[in-house]
Every structure is written in structure tokens, then in C-alpha cells.
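Subject: for your reference before the review

Hello V.,

The reviewers asked for a structural picture of the protein, and I figured it would be easier to keep everything in one thread rather than splitting it across files. Below is the amino acid sequence we used in the manuscript, unchanged from the supplementary table.
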Amino acid sequence: NALGKKKETVALEGLTLTIPKGVVFGVLGPNGAGKTTLVRILSTLLTPTSGFARVAGFDVVRQAREVRRHIGQVLGGERGYYGRLSGRENLLYFAALNHLSPGKAGRRVDEMLEKVNMTDNQDTLMERYSRGMKQRIHIARGLLMDTDIILLEEPTMGLDPFGAQEFRQLIPEIASQGKTV
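And here is what came back from the structure prediction:
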């Protein structure tokens, strides 16, 4: 703008959305439509400037800790891991942050590594992983805590066609367990 003022971007204006428990629900739209903003608000990573959002009946601002206990999230991209730790160590670290006992954490990590076909590479440092391998660990981390709600944002980013197909086959399996995706 000629006066040096920033143009305000409004996202999600007038959005009212109720997603029933145990369904697979997708949000489609062009770049800039607010899909990422919505996922970040629902996952408590971004605070809405107006309005409100509830996840599992909990307010995302006032009850963020409770919201986080009910959600797993799989985000696309290169963040959210420690490169100098192996894939397995990253998952064990995340499990410890979420107060899983060491025994249960080990079992869940093994199960998730198998689910995302990363058992053969589990002890390789993440900084040596390909983008697709990193995304597989992100998927494993999103499912690790066995939450009732799984939030996905571009979960197949970086996966090869075979890996993307494997992931798409995993979605109905998750939903069949009564989880909301």
C-alpha cells in the first residue's frame, strides 16, 4: 500500500464448523484460504484473534493443555525433530515429553516405526534421512500418543507415491478405531 500500512488479512471469517466424532473430515481450498490457520488454531499453535474454537469440548485458548491431550498432529515440513537424534530417539523423546512410561513408550515407538515402515532405519540420525523418511517419523509421532483426534496438514508432503498410498490406506484404519481424523 502506498502509505506503508500493512493490509490486514482476514482468515476464517464467518466459519462455523462441527466435526462429528469418529469421522474423516477434509478441508479443501486454494492457497491462502486459511486451511493452515485452521489447523494451527485447532492444535493450539496459533491463538485466534477473535471468535473461538473448541476441540473435544475444550476451548483452544483457555484449555489448551486439555486440547493437546486429545490431539495428535502430523504436519508437513522440515520442523519438529532433532537432527542429531535417530528416528527412534526422537520418538522416545516425544513419548517422554508426554509422560509415557519407558516400557509403554518403547512398545508404542516400536509399533509406530513398524506402521510407517521405518524399523530398518530407526537408528539412523534424522539429519541423514531423506525428506520422505522424516515425514514418516512425523506420521509416527502424530500417532504415537493414541489420541482420539488426529489433525493432518499435508501429511504426505515429501513422501514418494508408494509412501503416500501407504498413508492413505492408514486413514480408514485410524478412523475404524473411532478416532476423528
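For the response letter, the relevant points are probably these. The longest helix spans residues 161-176. The chain has a mean pLDDT of 91.

Happy to draft the paragraph if you're swamped.

O.
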